[in-house]
Write a structure and sequence with these properties.
Layout: E1 4-13, E2 23-31, E3 36-41, H1 45-51, H2 57-71, H3 82-90, E4 97-107, H4 110-121
Antiparallel strand pairs: 1-2, 1-4, 2-3
Length: about 120
């Protein structure tokens, strides 16, 4: 199997926007060649509360779950192409949950690469 180009962004939680500190909480990965868009998320409550003891962890989990569901095609964005969804999810925002910069790479299996990136960058 030939490796395919993919794009990915790390999902991060910025509990206090004014401070600019963040915790990596997931990875989005899009591979046009393989018709793949996915997100894996994991919230480390201890790390999040270290940045902001009063962080609303349940709201963060809900927002990350909404991102994961959007990747799967749920909600209004589900009628758009995978590429449009990825661009929408990675657009810059000044919110508590946001995507970092988009990076590229090559992989034979996007789902395996997504798990590898999540393990390396989030867990």
């Amino acid at each position: 199997m030939t490796a395919s180009l993919f794009e990915y962004a790390v999902l991060r939680v910025v509990p206090r926007i004014e401070r600019g500190e963040y915790v990596n909480t997931g990875v989005l990965l899009y591979c046009q060649d393989r018709d793949f868009l996915g997100a894996l998320v994991s919230v480390d409550e201890t790390r999040l509360r270290a940045l902001h003891p009063d962080a609303d962890v349940e709201s963060v989990r809900d927002a990350l779950e909404a991102i994961r569901r959007t990747c799967d095609g749920d909600g209004p964005a589900g009628t758009t192409s995978l590429g449009q969804r990825f661009r929408w999810l990675t657009a810059p925002r000044s919110t508590v949950v946001q995507a970092g910069p988009v990076h590229v790479g090559f992989a034979d299996d996007p789902a395996t690469e997504l798990a590898r990136l999540r393990d390396a960058l989030v867990l």
